[in-house]
Amino acid sequence: MAIDGLEYEFGGPIGALGVTLGTPFVTYALYFTCNEGGCPNPALLSDPIGHFKTEVWPGWSGLFSSKVTAYYAAYWFGLVALQYILPGKTVLGTVLKDGTRLKYKLNGFESFMLVLSYCGAMTYMEGFDWWLWAFIWDNFLQLITGTLLFAIAMSVYCYTSSFFTGEPLATNTGNILYDWFIGRPLNPRIHNLDLKSFCELRPGMIMWPILNFAFLAHQYNTHGYVSDSMLLVNVFQFWYVFDALYNEPAVLTTMDITTDGFGFMLAFGDLCWVPLTYCLQARYLASHPVDLGYLGLAGVLAVQGAGYYIFRNANSTKNSFRTNPKDPKVKDIKYIETKSGSKLMVSGWWGVSRHINYLGDWIMAWAWCLPTGFGTPITYFYVAYFAVLLLHRERRDEAKCKAKYGEDWKRYTEIVKYRIIPGIY
Ligand code: NDP
């Protein structure tokens, strides 16, 4: 049992072991199966083991590079330095169990802008031949290992230190593997660096559009042009990151920050999984350009527009409703009062389904994959994986809300009947 009376999640220790081994495996597998040689390479299909051994496998030493890991460490600690140096507003987090609220210095957006300005200035001066773009392309595999090592180091540190700091815990089942995976401490901090919120939005999220741009440069350098599909993927995903960092305070009310501990699951997700698997579409297009044409462009733009409209409006409505209920945008929203003191919206986007924001996010996932065309199912990995993540996340959130709101939640689900897709699910 976890604290708060919640049962084991993610299938308990066995599930934790499976995800711990499985997610790095998938990250590497996506690289080995979808690369310049094909996606998948036909030779890999006809003679998987032989081809893998002779052509694909770089040897154990090829998986790791101390230089790449050192560069990644410099980037990571550089972002930590920016957190301290750059100005940023101080915001209070949600109320903790002991009634206190943590302070967060938010300047992720400023850090993002500075990193982008540097990369933009260097590309302006040196063009697509700037060393970083080729370095990323050539060392993608070693970058996976570097970020994985960081995630392991950070989760071991957070798990171990939580026994000595006396900090609030999110999970404490006593099972070492499970607690390390799910995250024992709720808000681990070193000095006043909040590790969880830092990792959530900075090293991985900022690296993701940089990787995408390296793939755009590679496409230009090898094919002599940048395809419309590559442009779209870069713009859409850049926009997603821009939006997340621009709305940085909103992260403080998400489940990751308010409820989940910081362990391997989040550390790996934030540092390795998000940037290095979410860039798959751009990495594919770098060596397999797709030309969409005006009709294709219009279709993909329409899907993206619809998804973003739902996603942004739903998330902003909740954020305004919870942080500033007098905001004119939410003043007419209908809600029910609960015994816990919190109000639950029952009209507007949150009256359509209980997680309409997930539907918007998932529609956007399609817009990110469709530009890769229909030559391979592998580039649609994100759509499939994200559906599983959101379905599972919705169940977890539902369980949390049921435990928190009791009868009031039952009343709420009688008014707002659908979980994610109105009329269907
Ligand atoms: P939500 O933003 O959906 O927040 C859920 C919480 O909102 C509930 O626990 C409850 O918290 C509160 N709530 C629920 N119903 C209502 C209501 N009717 N009125 C007011 N408050 C309500 O959760 P997430 O953190 O899961 O998602 C945030 C966004 O991040 C989503 O758009 C999601 O798609 C996205 N996301 C993206 C991921 C990615 O990898 N790209 C991964 C995960 C999420 P309370 O206890 O305060 O009432």
From TrEMBL:
Organism superkingdom: Eukaryota
Record membrane topology: Multi-pass membrane protein
Transmembrane segments: 106-124, 130-159, 225-242, 262-280, 292-311, 365-391
InterPro entries: ERG24_DHCR-like, Sterol_reductase_CS
MF (Gene Ontology): Delta14-sterol reductase activity
Matching Pfam families: ERG4_ERG24
Keywords for the protein's UniProt record, in alphabetical order: Lipid biosynthesis, Lipid metabolism, Membrane, NADP, Oxidoreductase, Steroid biosynthesis, Steroid metabolism, Sterol biosynthesis, Sterol metabolism, Transmembrane, Transmembrane helix
Compartment list: Membrane
Signal sequence, start to end: none
GO CC term, one of those recorded: endoplasmic reticulum membrane
PROSITE patterns given in the database record: STEROL_REDUCT_1, STEROL_REDUCT_2
Protein family: Belongs to the ERG4/ERG24 family.
Protein name per UniProt: Delta(14)-sterol reductase
